[in-house]
Amino acid sequence: MRLTFHIWRQPNTGAPGKMERYESANMNPDMSMLEALDVLNEELMGKGTEPVVFEHDCREGICGSCGFMINGVAHGPQSKTTVCQLTLRHFKDGEELYLEPWRANSFPVLKDLMVDRSAFDRIIAAGGYVSVPAGSPQDANALLIPKTEADRAMDAAACIGCGACVAACPNASASLFTGAKISHLGLLPQGQPERNERALRMVRQMNGEGFGQCGNIGECEAVCPKGITLENIARMNADFLKASVCERPKSGAAEDAA
Amino acid sequence: MELTQKNMSTSAVGIAGAPNLRFWNTTNGKKAIMAVTGVILAGFLVGHLLGNLQIFLGRDAFNRYAENLHNLPALVWGTRVVLLLAVGLHIWSTVQLADRKSSARPVAYQKYTPQTSTYASRTMYMSGPIVAAFIVYHLMHFTFGTGGTEYHYYDPYGNVVAGFKVLPIALAYVVAMGLLSMHLRHGLWSFFQSLGLNHPAYTPKLKGAAAVIAVLIFLGFASIPVAVLLGAVKQDIF
Ligand code: HEM
Ligand code: FES
Asked: What is the pLDDT of residue B136?
């Protein structure tokens, strides 16, 4: 199988980048997109050209490391599929593929197709946790959780933080990611004590990182490899609105600790 | 010891605490303002449309309606103040969010293929400002009488007929109403989403209802210039 690639090449964050054209006849419909890039890189190194840098780890669709645009679609044409799980059988022999990195001010390109997503880590660090006493374990089933709530929390927790939502959004908004993280904890009893504080901190951090506004456009939902829905963004908006209304001035011990 | 992010975090990313943005300084807060002000404007549109459609009842009925309105200064001025505030906040948020939107993605994609989004949703930042320009002309046209067509403050019916007999003006109104309709198609259900309401059973119905209302508002408003052009509403006995 033969494919033509147009790939964004950029040596580092500050440097200008451009699309380069490469052809390979050694493609196989059973390969994943990342394996295709491995083969292409072998060929490039054989010719003394620098290999294309892309991020990956598990290659089984669960870690969230991989991801780039294929012909203008985050993670390519197959829905609910990361590029590491996307096989070449979804493309035609001789097809031209345009590969670009996620583009957002808050995701600076590190090199070629690899971007810096530590803005996501900072959003998580701002409030994507529950503070639990790490003592002896509780009795099983001491906390009752309705099945529907457990399922919704689980669906939200499926987010792997790949960044496709930001990449696909015309405003480069991180709302689907942040909404998923806020909902995943906020739907469970363990998440209730910090629910307001979490919404305030994570939304503020998301805004501080420079991501764009949510326009309820829905491109994020369409490309999400884990099927996270816009409902999570509404939940974030509701939690943030309520937490903003209820927020109290810090006083006493809280002020001393801060 | 109070559990704070500083003494709890085991993360290696080291943030100095989230920025302490007030509600209005977040994009989420600005979208909530847009949602509330947008729905106020949409509510006015419904009332305005019902009033305007009385033009089909003839010159006397329409001019009497206009006169009755002007005999209720509290209603007229109350509405004007609320609308001015709503429009002002809606446009102010637009300006700030448009700035955020352009800085959030400084380098554009060489290829970008939308998957499921509507054209209406992707063009809110174009339909809105064009509607704003339309509103300015519309006020000059029928409120201040400086739109370039014949105008007598005592004869709103005649002003409308004179205004829409000019083909380019009538067409411009129809186009503006088309853009307004697109704006509402996305805006009316967005209102719920932006304020935090989304439900798998109801949100699809809200989207459907928004589309139906948007089309009805378009047909209602556009019917007036079209009726004048076709001669169904004309300068009869005066
Ligand atoms: C009769 C006039 C108008 C009505 C009824 C209206 C209504 C609405 C509604 C209901 C929304 C949805 C808010 C949300 O996303 O939750 C909206 C969004 C929006 N409006 Fe308007 N609007 C009007 C005029 C304007 C004008 C004059 C402008 C700009 C100058 C404008 C710009 C926008 C923009 C940019 C959005 C999208 C915001 C976003 O999603 O990021 N609108 N409008
Ligand atoms: S490499 Fe882990 S999700 Fe693709």
From this structure: 98
Place of tokens 């302490």: B20
Our CA-based measurement puts residue A27 at a distance from the nearest CA of chain B, in whole angstroms, of 23
Q: Which residue of A has its CA nearest to B21?
A: A204
Q: For residues B93-126, b (16+ Cβ closer than 10 Å) or e, as one string?
A: bbebbbebbeebbeeebeebebbebeebbeebee
Structural fold of domain B25-100+119-230: 3 helical TM bundles of succinate and fumarate reductases (1.20.1300)
Q: Quick check: is A195 in a domain?
A: yes
- A168: containing domain: 118-133+141-252
| Nearest residue in B to A126, CA atom | B18
Secondary structure letter of residue B19 according to DSSP: -
What residue segments make up the domains of chain B, in order of their start? Answer: 25-100+119-230
* Tokens coding A170: 């015309």
The pLDDT score that the predictor gives to residue A167 is: 98
CA of B87 to the centre of ligand 1 (A): 9
pLDDT value of residue A252? 58
pLDDT at position B236: 65
What pLDDT, in 10s, does the model give residues A89-104? 999 999 999 999 999 9
CA dist B191 and A164 (Å) reads 25
Does A231 reside within a domain? yes
Structure ipTM = 0.93
Q: Could you report the per-residue pLDDT of A135-149, keeping only the tens digit for each?
A: 888 888 888 999 999
Query: How far, in Å, is the centroid of ligand 1 from the Cα of B99?
Result: 15
- pLDDT, tens digit (0-9, with 9 covering 90-100), for A194-205: 999 999 999 999
